[in-house]
Amino acid sequence: FPTSICLNTVRCRDWNKLRKPVVEKMRRDRINSSIEQLKGLLETVFHKQQPNVKLEKADILEMTVTYLRQQTLQSSTLTRSEMDYKDGYSRCFEEVIDFL
């Protein structure tokens, strides 16, 4: 009985040793694919900042983070502007109602 457990354990270890590089390659391929997709989506932004420069993966990730932060800030600014517009519109509407 203990021998069969040992054999299974050895087989499992061997299997895991064989499987680990394959799983790691698949993980790296997924990461590389995602980085390439980011590069493709934001290619115009990257080209404006650094034309004719080969970007490393770290550069692509850093520039993506910077771009997303800028977009978030612009989006919150627009939201404030929209709120100011709505507040002004409401005050104007109330004044018109009071006038009538």
Automatic annotation (TrEMBL):
Orange domain: residues covered: 85-100
Location relative to the cell: Nucleus
One Pfam family it belongs to: HLH
InterPro entries: bHLH_dom, HES_HEY, HLH_DNA-bd_sf, Orange_dom
Signal peptide coordinates: none
Keywords associated with the record: Developmental protein, Differentiation, DNA-binding, Neurogenesis, Nucleus, Repressor, Transcription, Transcription regulation
GO terms under cellular component: nucleus
SMART domains documented for this protein: HLH (SM00353)
Location (main, coarse): nucleus
GO process terms (BP): animal organ development; cell differentiation; negative regulation of cell differentiation; negative regulation of transcription by RNA polymerase II; nervous system development; neuronal stem cell population maintenance
Molecular functions per Gene Ontology: DNA binding; protein dimerization activity
Domain BHLH: residue ranges: 15-71
Coiled-coil annotated spans: none
Function: Transcriptional repressor of genes that require a bHLH protein for their transcription. Plays an important role as neurogenesis negative regulator.
Subunit structure of this chain's protein: Transcription repression requires formation of a complex with a corepressor protein of the Groucho/TLE family.
Designated name of the protein: Transcription factor HES-5
Organism this protein belongs to: Xenopus tropicalis (Western clawed frog)
Gene coding for it: hes5.2
